[in-house]
Amino acid sequence: MLDILYPRRCPVCDDVLPAGSECTLCIKCRNKVEKVIEPFCFKCGKPVGDSKREFCQDCKKKEYFYTQGRAAFVYDRYMKKSIAAFKYGGRREYGSYYAGEIVKRYGKWIENIGAQYLIPVPIHRERYRKRGYNQAKVIADDIGRRMNIPVLDGYIEREKNTEALKNLNEAQRISCLKDAFFVSESSKLLYRDLRCVILVDDIYTTGSTISKCAEVLKKAGVKKIYFLCACIGKDDQGGE
Questions:
Q1: Distance (Å, rounded) from C-alpha 127 to C-alpha 80?
Q2: What is the side-by-side strand order in the sheet with 117-120?
Q3: Phi and psi for 11 in degrees, rounded to 5?
């Protein structure tokens, strides 16, 4: 009855799934989704396409403040549609699918890290008011429930309501994210024993947002910072 009244939808194409279906994706989308497989960058987890390469082009050129990261899906046209529905179309239930695939793929990696908390990348209060939820927290909450790791929401705060980074070049992204995030003194005192955390977000392409969040965590005294994302760009893509 619940499936009839509140039908589940395919998180890729948004089509209604058959009532009582145990499948997560509809039939036509099962072979469309491109999952991240090896070889991928040792640092950020971005697909590199060559088993002889340890790092992607970005990680060769730039210094990031995080230790390492992983993502479940390649950010292609199908996942762009899925993430857009998740973020802007009110399909917050899709976060459970992303989290499930992340845990299925990287559960052992997550366990080995031994993180004290999952920390969702924050969105600005104006966006939160319009959207009604932080998509990163939706994913983090589901991963935390599956892996029994607490979620520390609000530790990083977002001061600037930045424009979409995918429309900006690298210099503009750096300028846009300057002083965008901070950790309050009261949070530092309350969680002064933070040593290892995992940042969680929906998309990673250039790493600008994740690295900036990792930077403020480093300044707050966190020693090891990892990240998990639903989607990641390929070696030649740009974005967040």
A1: 19
A2: 68-74, 224-232, 196-204, 117-120
A3: -75, 0
Q: 38-46 — which CB contacts under 8 Å span 24+ positions?
A: 41/235, 42/68, 43/68, 43/69, 44/68, 44/69, 44/204, 44/207, 44/232, 45/69, 45/70, 45/71, 45/232, 46/71, 46/204, 46/232, 46/233, 46/234, 46/235
Structure pTM?
Answer: 0.90
Alpha-carbon distance of 82 to 88, in angstroms, equals 10
- Three-point CA angle 227, 80, 201, nearest 5°: 20
What pLDDT was estimated at residue 44? Answer: 96
Query: Each residue of 53-110: pLDDT tens digit?
Result: 899 999 998 889 999 999 999 999 999 999 999 999 999 999 999 999 999 999 999 9
Q: Report the alpha-carbon distance of residue 202 to residue 62 in Å, rounded.
A: 22
d(CA 13, CA 6): 17
Amino acid letter at 178?
Answer: K
Block residue for tokens 């024993």 = 193
**Count of alpha carbons within 13 Å of 122, Cβ hemisphere only?**
24
DSSP state at residue 162: P
